[in-house]
Amino acid sequence: MGKIKSALEIALERTDSVKSDKGSIGLFEAKQKGKKLANEFLEGTVKSLEDELKKEAPQTRENLKQGIFDVLVSRITLPAAKDDLERLEAAGRGLETVIGGKRFGEISRQFNQLMSQYLDEAAQYEEAVKRQYAPKLRQKEEEISRRFGRQVKLDPFQDPEFVAFFTQHINALKENYQAAADQVRQEAARLFGGE
């Protein structure tokens, strides 16, 4: 009659062949540290990524750079407000540090100028769409005012019809600029990969 094994013995047999790879753990930790450093850089608590990279041991430096790169490249997106331009500029400076060379710095500066233009154009677009929709909104305000017997002023963004109209038009603008953001992320990945 065979020996009946406990669940613990079976589990130990199965994990017997699994040995911890301290090197892999160290590289993973370096990548995580890089992600943390990138976020601190974007917040302004870390002033120089270059100085932080110099402090790191040469065998883990590439993984640290990979973690930094992953965070910073994900921040290359369309800005929602003027404040986001500072975030984009910081991400560009950080990427320039981990990629090396001057080429990405120029790409980043051009992208920031383009994103500033995008915000200006989006604001103009919003005003133009509001002006175009204004007669219809006034008509709705008058109708609601008659029903309630008092003056009613509507915010265009409270009107679902306006929101749909606005979204349709602004999405067309965003698509044009989103292609530029995608292109910058791809170029950063290409340059970081050493192609």
Q: What would your notes on this structure say?
A:
- With 195 residues, the protein is mostly helical.
- The chain has 2 domains: 22-74; 78-195.
- It has helices spanning 7-15, 22-43, 49-55, 58-74, 83-99, 103-148, 160-192.
- α2 (22-43) packs across α4 (58-74), α4 (58-74) packs antiparallel against α5 (83-99) and α6 runs antiparallel to α7.
- It is flat, with a radius of gyration of 27 Å.
- It starts with 6 loop residues before the first helix and ends with a helix.
Question: What is the overall shape?
Answer: flat
Outline the biggest β-sheet.
none
Q: What value does the Rg take, in angstroms?
A: 27 Å
Number of helices: 7
The helical percent reads over 70%
Q: What's the number of domains? A: 2
Strand content: under 5%
Mean pLDDT: 85
Descriptors for this entry?
single chain; 195 residues; mainly alpha; 77% helix
What is shown here, in short?
The chain is mainly α and 195 residues long. The chain contains 7 helices and no strands. It has helices at 7-15, 22-43, 49-55, 58-74, 83-99, 103-148, 160-192.
Helix and strand arrangement:
Blueprint: H1 7-15, H2 22-43, H3 49-55, H4 58-74, H5 83-99, H6 103-148, H7 160-192
